[in-house]
Amino acid sequence: MRISGNRSDVLVVGGGIIGLVTAWRSAQRGLRTTLADPEPGGGAAQVAAGMLAAVTELHYGEQTLLGLNVASAARYPAFVAELEEASGQRTGFRACGTLSVALDADDRAHLRELHALQQRSGLQSEWLSGRECRRLEPMLAPGVRGGLRADGDHQVDPRRLASALVTACERAGVVFHRAWVRRLSVVNGRAAGGVLADGTELGAGQVVLAGGSLSGRLEGLPEAVVPPVRPVKGQVLRLTVPRAYAPFLSRTVRAVVRGSHVYLVPRADGELVVGATSEEQGWDTTVTAGGVYELLRDAHELVPGITELPLTETRAGLRPASPDNAPLLGPTALPGLHLATGHHRNGVLLTPVTGDVMGHVLATGELPEVARPFASHRFGRPPAAPSHDAVRAPVSQEQPA
User: What is the domain class of 96-152+231-321 according to CATH?
Assistant: First the structure.
């Protein structure tokens, strides 16, 4: 076994956008931070569409999650401005709004019910007739029966977001180990770091498990703290809108077609993202002909002109889903071990608030009020009371350069 030379205050296991934002906020708090991942910035962010859809992603039974989604959406403009300044990179953030439309009478009735739920929840959305929808988006099919306009639901490019977070972490002093942590180190009943695949041991005062759908597979986790996270497969297509077709869509457009959700997310650079399937297929990330066909078929019913566009990429990824489709945040029953996983379809949306929450937890030992309904122990044992050495005082109160 090879021992790493420097012990860190925080070891983040997993370098997706959730792990990256956790490491960035930790380093900004003055904590010496290490992140381990074979490919920082990879994972689900490479497949996600980047919809920031607190309003249009509202589902029945998820009103508690709505509060966290809304809080994170409100933080996005300031978060993006800070991140772009820290990294010198653009994130593809667009305040463009979202239009959810109905293609038949049943879908129209469903959207009406969703609109009523949004209003009861204090959310801002506007009901439009089919004609008003087509006036906003002329490429929509003539059969559109009505829709909901949500001007507060925006988008970001997850790939650019991840790249900017990697750079911001590097500039903040985060140490990267481009390898996966094979096993959690537990010393005297406390998480004390991790062991990489090559045997290198990384010591740490606190460990954050942010491994997405892989979080429950880390060796050495006591049974009581294994996160109940499962992979949910999603297939996504990317097309290119030639200049001759621009503007194709001005905002994100969503619909339910034959009971399946489909969305079209237009980027400022001409890319059009179409997604996404939702499949309980375990760890399979195969792109299937059926998945591609269904997405193109449903998107064509919504926007017939899409079949004229070049198809440039097909990808499949795994969303990390918890039993209630909400994230697992903060301390566990094992002292020194924290979770930041289980974000399911809201990982990109919840990036700002997750970073703030985890930074606060790592620096103070306390879970902020906004995150308490999503405490990591809600499916198991409560966390142990922090010991005097559980939280290390920052080495400096100044922000790292």
Answer: alpha beta
> In sequence order, what are the residues at sequence separation of 6 or more whose Cβ sits closer than 8 angstroms to the Cβ of residue 28?
172, 359, 399, 400
Cβ atoms of 347 and 262 closer than 8 Å = no
What residues of the chain score a pLDDT lower than 70? 1-6, 381, 384-401
Lateral strand order in the sheet of 260-266: 126-129, 146-150, 98-102, 252-257, 260-266, 271-275, 230-240, 311-321
Q: Which CATH superfamily is domain 1-95+153-229+323-401 in?
A: FAD/NAD(P)-binding domain (3.50.50.60)
**The pLDDT of residue 381:** 66
SS (HEC) of 235-281:
EEEEEECCHHHCCCCCCEEEEEECCEEEEEEECCCCEEEEECCCECC
The partner residues of 311 in beta bridges, in order of sequence, read 239
pLDDT in tens, 139-161: 999 999 999 999 999 999 999 99
| Confidence at residue 27, expressed as pLDDT on a 0 to 100 scale | 98
The answer to whether residues 45 and 330 touch, using CB atoms and an 8 Å cutoff, is no
pLDDT, tens only, 177-189: 999 999 999 999 9
The model carries a pTM of 0.93
Nearest Cα neighbor of 54 from 375, 350, 351 is 350
Does residue 222 have a cis bond before it (omega within 30 degrees)?
Answer: no
